[in-house]
Amino acid sequence: MDFNVKGITFNADDVVDISLDSLTAGTICRHHLFYSLAGGKKVISLLHAGDLIDSDFIQKYKTKNIKSLSGIEVANESLIQEYKLEWGNFKQARSQRERMQVRDQLLEKIKQDFLILKNKSFLSYVIACYETFFDCPDEVIESYQQKSVILYTRSLMMSAKLTCLTIAGNYLDFHFIKDFYNTAFLLDYGLVMSNGLNYTITHACELERSEPTSGVQYLKDMGRSSYELDLFLNHPIRSHEYAQKFEDRFSYPELLDFIKLHHEKGDGSGFPNGYFYAGMGRTEGLLAFCDYLIPFTDHIYRKNDGPIIFIDYFENLKNLNTKNMLPIKTFVRMWQEFLDWSKEEMGVAS
């Protein structure tokens, strides 16, 4: 019997039992979790793979004396540990040569797992990066999930994808990569911590990402309140203000200043300050590239989602009519070289 629950299609053979005792509060769910009613004829979606598991969720079902839930595996625990080991080796490397060797191994593994074999979910890498690098207070990720599933999902994915781009761009300082990961995680925290976040604001963010300057115009055309317009235009400043509270966790706290710039444009048409990119450096460009690469959508992780995240999102960015307003040419070329390298091996494999 086939089921389709909130965009997830599966049959009975895909389902495994997940003991409640195996779930740990504060971790990212490895499975799509369900609960069956009426002899299995009705299936209720409880958590998507990638959601944060909280203690209330576990306690709720234990109180009902439910021992296990049904699940569809998405992230692979062995793969998560493999990536954590690679990043651990990177951290322990004592010379530039050793770091370059581990970097090459990481990029080769990413290529194999998500572009060539195509039978694994990028969620495994997302979780490995979260468990390796995330160093903000728990309230940050909890606020993201409680206030906006879209911003929560995007922040996890964007931060993880940024680590791939960072090592591909020859940034080889573990502590820098860790700080960059957390900086990306906090880009939109000012939106999350406001009282006015809603669908319209989130949609304006996606419009702005897919067509720079269109998000502001959308809010004006919709006749939204001055409060909402101010929230949208000034969220880089508010995000930076919140992020500064965590700067003692950063080895490179100056990275947090980039949060203020992530909606500025090359011609001065961006916000909140209308800066030109002439005075901005390569690292800011890398952050902007990743920010424009990942859409504001509630991504449903599934096996074989690597090509969507690595290729489709990139092709959409390359086709952006106004991409020349962004300081991303260097990184478009860099990522194209990575994909071309992968395609060569895909051709051999086929």
What does this structure look like?
With 350 residues, the chain is α+β, with helices and mostly antiparallel strands. The chain is 54% helix and 9% strand. It contains 14 helices and 6 strands. It has helices at residues 55-63, 77-92, 96-116, 123-133, 138-147, 149-168, 174-185, 189-192, 199-210, 214-221, 226-244, 282-293, 306-318, 329-349, and strands spanning 2-5, 8-11, 16-19, 31-37, 42-47, 68-73. The strands form 2 sheets. The chain has a 4-stranded antiparallel beta sheet, with no helix packed on it. The chain has a two-stranded antiparallel sheet with strand order 1-2. Helix 2 crosses helix 4 and helix 3 crosses helix 14 (329-349). The radius of gyration is 21 Å and the shape is globular. The protein starts with a strand and ends with a helix. 37% of the residues are buried. The model has no long low-confidence stretch (mean pLDDT 89).
